[in-house]
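Hi all, long-time lurker, first post. I run a small reading group and we've been trying to get comfortable going from sequence to structure in the token notation. Rather than ask abstract questions, I figured I'd post a concrete chain and ask someone more experienced to write out its structure so we can walk through it together at our next meeting. Sequence below, copied exactly:
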Amino acid sequence: MIFALCCVFTAGVLSGCGSKPKTDEAGDKTVSTAKSEAPKEKFVKMAAEANKKMPLVVPGGLRQDKEEALSKTEYKYHYTFTKEPAVSAEEFVRSTKPMLSMGLKTVKDDNVDMLRKEKITLIYAYHKMDGSLFAEVKILPEEYSK
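-- Answer (accepted) --
Happy to help. Here is the structure in token form:
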């Protein structure tokens, strides 16, 4: 599933391997500014089904808290670090985005296929243990389509 992708890709980033010192706490906090249509019912149901299994502890220092169909074109995954990130938010986004995109291109999953077919933008929100937003990684449809 998608949380497994995040687990694998985030574990290395959390260790701080090859990272710069932590200097930027604000991160890449992407906020959708477009007024958008309500999400399709199938994505609302997909999120509701996934949320029944939450929270999910993900190896590598993450917990998946929820999924959310934001709009007709956006779907969001919420994660919380279970330990303090070892890199800045900027470095985290720079390291995680390419790995997520690559993993999404190769994963065999019906839900990912449905998101890909509908050209949905995926947003991965990573929160600190205190609930504050650490970083968001936005994956556009063209970045994860096969």
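A couple of things your group might point at:
The domain at 2-14+37-144 is CATH 3.30.300.250 (GMP Synthetase; Chain A, domain 3).
The first strand starts at residue 56 and ends at 58.
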